[in-house]
Amino acid sequence: MSTSATVDEVMAELEDNFGIVASKDTLLSRFLLSEQEPAESIVDWGLRLEELMMQVTRKTAFDEGEKRFMLRKRFWRGLRSEELKNATRVHFEGGLTYEELRNKVREEEYEIQISKEKGGRPKQGKVYQTKAEVEISACSICLNHRIPMIQTH
């Protein structure tokens, strides 16, 4: 390589000598099959996934929207914790961007961790009963008390 080589020429030479030699199919498969590792934080999982996506896009052309959609979907589906997935499902299905979803998952991970450190159970959604359900429940209790009285008469 000559001393007057351009930056692009130097980068191409470095890529040829030290770059990833895996095929685009192999890289895409690694991305699509990736999952969060047991000791991997949400931040590290997101960064590793972004790195895998960057390797894929060096060999395959994706527009930015498609790339972000794939990142978002693989990030959420590759989460190790079902508890975390359940807590963030509404954000995933709500169409947040990859970055927004990653931040929401980080927030939930923190909340779950705090809850576990306090010795309590993770937060759960509130369950509300409708008036009709309360009335049916009350009637059921009333009937359960009257059945033995009817059977004796």
Describe the structure.
The chain has one domain. The chain starts with 6 loop residues before the first helix and ends with a helix. It has 153 residues and is mainly alpha-helical. It has helices at residues 7-18, 24-33, 42-59, 64-77, 82-93, 98-117, 131-152. The protein is elongated and about 110 Å long. Helix 3 (42-59) packs antiparallel against helix 4 (64-77), helix 4 runs parallel beside helix 6 and helix 5 packs antiparallel against helix 6 (98-117).
Indicate the radius of gyration in whole angstroms: 27 Å
State the helical fraction: over 70%
Give the termini distance in whole angstroms: 106 Å
Largest sheet, if any?
A: none
Tell me the total number of β-strands.
0
- Beta-strand content estimate: under 5%
Structural class: mainly alpha
User: Which residues form runs of ≥5 with pLDDT under 50?
Assistant: none
Order of helices and strands: HHHHHHH
Q: What would the principal axes of the Cα set say about the shape?
A: elongated
Question: How many domain modules?
Answer: 1
Summed over residues and divided by their number, the pLDDT gives a mean of 81
Helix count? 7
